[in-house]
Amino acid sequence: MSRMDGRNIPVVQELSMKFVFLLSVIIVFILGGCSVERIVTASEMDWKPPKLTMQECPNLNGNYTYKLMRNYSGAYESDLIHVYAGSIYVLWKTANNSPTTGRPQTPLNYSTDILDSQSYYIEPRVKKKETTNIDSKNITYGTLHLEQTATTLIQGRQDEARVVTKLGTEMSGCSGGALILRHLEYNGGNDFVPRTASYGEFELRKGSDASLIITERRRQRAISFSSGMLGEPNEYPAVTRFYQLANP
Q: Whole-angstrom Cα distance, residue 226 to residue 233?
């Protein structure tokens, strides 16, 4: 029997390390392949408030002003809290032009491709009017136009893409004199990225001075890879902003 040359020991150690590495990769892929894939439903969330009705709803019809501030890059940033019901990712897919890239896209059909509880975009009905150049200002103001009926909330003027939300669904309704819009998004799940459910509420109220008061509440829960169970809620600080009624 021949003895192993001492010079071969490093080679054996290197092969052993490679074997251990490959084995660990295989185990990770096996465990990943055994992960539980499921969609979290709105009924599983700890909504605040837990129940919505179509009683004691506020009248939010009107035009409200919000602030536009120039940032360090020269572009304008808005202090407007953009409200919607359902998923922001689905909402973006209902626009003719992607809100994230500005590029044309084939939109989802709101009458056949999305749930009734999901907000969606509709395209302008009239040609947009010429506006004054405001590039020289560091702070200026925009206008949020709200049209509310017994069944819908529409955001935006007729000369711009508008967001439509059906009221009286599991994701929209009223409570305590406020209009509540619920949102729920799923994140992660690819390439072993932790999966989470982000959710919360937009609360819209009418102030005593006829201003619009919007409060955003946001929470997040982890989704277990192995069981699909939801973790404990991680709550972020609520944000409340006031928007004055625009001059007629």
A: 19
Q: Which two tokens stand for residue 95?
A: 């626009």
Q: Is 20 helix (H, G, I), strand (E, B) or coil?
A: helix
Give tens-digit pLDDT for 178-224: 999 999 998 886 656 788 999 999 999 999 999 999 999 999 999 88
DSSP assignment, residue 86?
A: B
Instruction: Phi first, then psi: give them for residue 43, nearest 5 degrees.
Output: -70, -15
Report the relative pairing of strands 212-223 and 239-243 from DSSP bridges.
Answer: antiparallel
Q: Mind listing the pLDDT tens digit for each residue in 77-87?
A: 889 999 999 99
Specify whether the CB–CB gap between 91 and 118 falls below 8 A.
yes
Q: Cα separation of 144 and 91, whole Å? A: 18
Which of 14-28, 71-85, 144-158, 171-185 bottoms out in mean pLDDT, i.e. has the lowest?
14-28
Pairing type for strands 76-78 and 195-206 reads unpaired
- From the list 138, 147, 1, 125, the residue with the least C-alpha distance to 64 is 147
What value, to the nearest 5°, has the Cα angle with vertex 137 and ends 135 and 141?
100
From the list 86, 114, 111, 113, the residue with the least C-alpha distance to 171 is 86
**Which amino acid type is present at position 65?**
T
What Cα–Cα distance (Å) separates residue 211 from each residue in 64, 77, 119, 153, 245?
7, 21, 23, 17, 5
Rounded-to-10 torsion of CA 112, 118, 119, 121: -30
